[in-house]
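Exercise 3.2. Students should predict the tertiary structure of the chain below and write it as structure tokens, then compare their answer with the key that follows.

Predict this chain's 3D structure.
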Amino acid sequence: MQTSKITRIAVVALVLLFLVLSVISCSTHVHTHSHPTSGKKIPPGQAKKMNGDQSAKAYAPGQQKKR
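Answer key:
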């Protein structure tokens, strides 16, 4: 039983089409959040560390009224 030339070309074309579609459908996602807990307030100690300050007093919620 011999396969015809047209059938062989069709199979090769379908395989190539499948490979091309597989490669095109790959994608990467880049997350650009400034910090992982977006929307949540960070603790005063962490804010102090991020800004390189010596004291966390300026970042505490109770101390904001004094400024």
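Discussion points: The chain is about 40% helix and 0% strand. The two ends are 90 Å apart (CA to CA).
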